[in-house]
User: Fold this.
Amino acid sequence: MDFLISIAEGFIGMFEEGGETFMGLVTGIIPMLVVLITAVNALIKFIGEDRVNSFAQKCTKYFVLRYTVFPFLAVFFLTNPMCYTFGRFLPERQKPAFYDSAVSFVHPITGLFPHANPAELFVYMGVAAGITELGLSLGPLALRFLLVGIVVMLIRGVVTEMITARMLKNKQDSAA
Assistant:
């Protein structure tokens, strides 16, 4: 009998925990994202969509800028997870690569700019604790973390763009 009660309590407990997680989202990140999306859209309307698109086209004309400067600006200004919306300024064929480069950068930016991804700051702080315990400065670590992140997002962006191009070509070839 106790066994059945434990199973029933565990079963309902799983849903109670899910409900608490959901309420955390409803009272935490969801309102922030709605306000952030509204603010960004208002800013784009205020600046002018043509100007923003023109700036984005200049920033994404060359793959080096497309997978370094553009994702950096997105992550720095819009933070995680809103930064991925910058992909709206890219052609469809470049969106997967932009996402890949931006998602690979949300951790390395936290050393110098913790506002960009505060939920994942614990990763950097774990490494930083070891460096601090050794009596070393965190500045060089944060800078190296950022620079390696920029190199990694460039590599991932370029590789993903090549993979996407090949997959689109294969799709067109098979449709013909």
